[in-house]
């Protein structure tokens, strides 16, 4: 950097006053100040842009490292899972595995569905509807307010306002 002391600045000011003149010196000083400010802003923007690029490159490198670590972990897990599955399949008897796969057929599924419907009908129709109606069993859902209104004692004597 340029080493400017007070004496050097004073010499530059006197030379500028003699060369430029007292009328134009304030305009030139203002213009020099604005140019110096623009240069500082430009340099700070360039510095910030460079630092942002460096940070982005660091983040990209970190992302690549994390992705490679995740891929390694995934491959390790898949390999250990494949080994476990192979070990279980080797221990499992072949005849049992084949009978389990073959056991579910369309006929069996239809039979199970019929049995389920029959059991559901027996479960729901255990008490006939006429018996429920005769003995006060619920035919449908009644709200709490409707039940209160139904069982509330009623006064049969009319009341008059007079």
UniProtKB/TrEMBL annotation:
Short name of any one Pfam family annotated for the protein: TatA_B_E
Protein location: Cell membrane; Membrane
Record GO terms (molecular function): protein transmembrane transporter activity
Superkingdom in the source lineage: Bacteria
GO biological process: protein transport by the Tat complex
Xref: InterPro entries: TatA/B/E, TatB
Gene3D superfamilies named among the record's database cross-references: 1.20.5.3310
Keyword Membrane: yes
Key words, A-Z: Cell inner membrane, Cell membrane, Coiled coil, Membrane, Protein transport, Translocation, Transmembrane, Transmembrane helix, Transport
A Gene Ontology term for the protein's cellular component: TAT protein transport complex
Keyword hit for Coiled coil: yes
Membrane topology: Single-pass membrane protein
Residue ranges that the Swiss-Prot or TrEMBL entry lists as coiled coil: 52-79
Quaternary structure, from the entry: The Tat system comprises two distinct complexes: a TatABC complex, containing multiple copies of TatA, TatB and TatC subunits, and a separate TatA complex, containing only TatA subunits. Substrates initially bind to the TatABC complex, which probably triggers association of the separate TatA complex to form the active translocon.
PANTHER family: SEC-INDEPENDENT PROTEIN TRANSLOCASE PROTEIN TATA, CHLOROPLASTIC
Similarity section: Belongs to the TatB family.
NCBIfam families the UniProt entry points to: tatB
Function: Part of the twin-arginine translocation (Tat) system that transports large folded proteins containing a characteristic twin-arginine motif in their signal peptide across membranes. Together with TatC, TatB is part of a receptor directly interacting with Tat signal peptides. TatB may form an oligomeric binding site that transiently accommodates folded Tat precursor proteins before their translocation.
Descriptive protein name: Sec-independent protein translocase protein TatB
Lineage: Bacteria, Pseudomonadati, Pseudomonadota, Betaproteobacteria, Burkholderiales
């Amino acid at each position: 950097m340029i080493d400017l002391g007070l004496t050097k600045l004073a010499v530059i000011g006197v030379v500028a006053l003699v060369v430029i003149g007292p009328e134009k010196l304030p305009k030139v000083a203002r213009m020099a100040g604005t140019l110096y400010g623009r240069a500082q802003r430009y340099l700070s923007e360039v510095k910030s842009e460079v630092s942002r690029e460096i940070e982005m490159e660091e983040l990209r490198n970190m992302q690549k490292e994390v992705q490679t670590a995740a891929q390694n972990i995934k491959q390790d897990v898949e390999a250990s899972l494949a080994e476990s599955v192979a070990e279980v399949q080797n221990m499992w008897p072949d005849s049992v595995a084949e009978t389990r796969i073959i056991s579910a057929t369309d006929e069996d599924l239809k039979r199970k569905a019929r049995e389920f419907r029959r059991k559901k009908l027996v479960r729901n129709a255990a008490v006939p509807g006429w018996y429920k109606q005769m003995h006060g069993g619920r035919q449908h859902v009644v709200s709490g307010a409707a039940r209160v209104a139904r069982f509330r004692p009623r006064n049969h004597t009319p009341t008059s306002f007079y």
